[in-house]
Amino acid sequence: MTLRSITCVAAISAAYATSAFSADSSDPITIPIHNWSSQIVMSHVVGQIFEGMGNNVEFVTTDSQAVYESVRLGDVTLELEVWEGAFGASFRTALENGGLHDAGDHDAVTREDWWYPMWTKDACPGLPSWEALNDCAAIFATAETGSKGRYLDGPVDWLKHGQERVAALGMNFQVVNAGSAAALWAEIGAAEAEKKPVVVFNWTPNFAEAVWPGEFVEFPVWVDGCDSDPSVGPNPDAAHDCGNPATGYLKKAAWDGMKDKWPAAYDTLTKISFTNPQIAEMAKFVDVDEMEPEEAAEAWLEANESTWKAWVN
């Protein structure tokens, strides 16, 4: 444990000392880790807060879709980043099956969709319209995609349904999946020097919006059900004929047993609420400043003491 970490834990312990709750279980609170930076850092921030309250914490690497079943069964205790666009369907399915519940929203507003850096608009001035993007498909073609434009989607397990959207809207694009979030940033960075037009999956909040100004592609507006019901949306024969929610939620989910087994930690979880700039800062610590996640969590806690103290008390 670093000196900074010891200081953070001591500060959290002092803040918690003024609270009055039933004792939490000595069993570890299990926090899942996924494959994007803000979630990893946020998990360590919350884990360090729980440790400062006297709890045991363990981290497990978990698939970002399957995690809701794991929370429902109590195999992991909570999920800190339920993105509406990426994970809303898996979250709702788990809710219907019982065993987990909505533990509250973050202040952050999310968006996840096709995105391009602003230099791309110079080559395709009709953007952000998806029809204009499709008319410009040839400028995104690569040796891999032939005459079709290349769209670099997120990792397969993020289930962004890029290919389904291409088919539903009749787009002249081929979807290629990135292996990681880092591969998406590498794609943008490699295109920057020559101002090469690229279109990739991106989301907000994250650090990229401060590094590469850009815009989301505007697809047919999201309507509830357009991702599952062919009768909803402009194409009556296909689902996924729409964009993702432009003002999506970012929720927390908890195992139903958490509130009884770790009452103090659960109370704190329901109060935790991160903003867009706070989440972007967490990602920046790792993706730009090259900190280790634990170190980034310590830095965030040190710089935002007034924020997390309100959650602990």
Task: Describe the protein's architecture and organization.
The chain is α/β, with parallel strands linked by helices. It folds into two domains: 3-109 and 248-312, Periplasmic binding protein-like II (D-Maltodextrin-Binding Protein, domain 2), CATH 3.40.190.10; 111-216, Glycine betaine-binding periplasmic protein, domain 2 (D-Maltodextrin-Binding Protein, domain 2, 3-Layer(aba) Sandwich). 42% of the residues lie in helices and 17% in strands. The strands form four sheets. The chain has a three-stranded antiparallel beta sheet, sandwiched between helices. Helix 1 packs across helix 2, helix 2 crosses helix 13 (293-303) and helix 12 packs across helix 13. The two termini are 24 Å apart.
Offer a few descriptive terms.
globular, three-stranded antiparallel β-sheet, D-Maltodextrin-Binding Protein, domain 2, 313 residues
Identify low-pLDDT runs. Answer: none
- Give the terminus-to-terminus CA distance: 24 Å
Enumerate how many helices there are, as a single number. Answer: 14
CATH architecture of the largest domain: 3-Layer(aba) Sandwich
Strands of the largest sheet, in order across it? 3-10-4
Proportion of residues in extended strands:
15-25%
In the CATH scheme, the class of the largest domain would be Alpha Beta
CATH level-3 fold name of the largest domain: D-Maltodextrin-Binding Protein, domain 2
Shape: globular
Rounded average pLDDT: 93
Order of helices and strands: HEHEHEHEEHHEHEHEHEEHHHHH
Helicity range: 40-55%
Largest sheet: 3 strands, antiparallel
Structural class comes to: alpha/beta
Total strands: the figure is 10
- CATH superfamily of the largest domain, called what? Periplasmic binding protein-like II
Work out the count of structural domains. Answer: 2
Q: Determine Rg (CA atoms, Å).
A: 21 Å
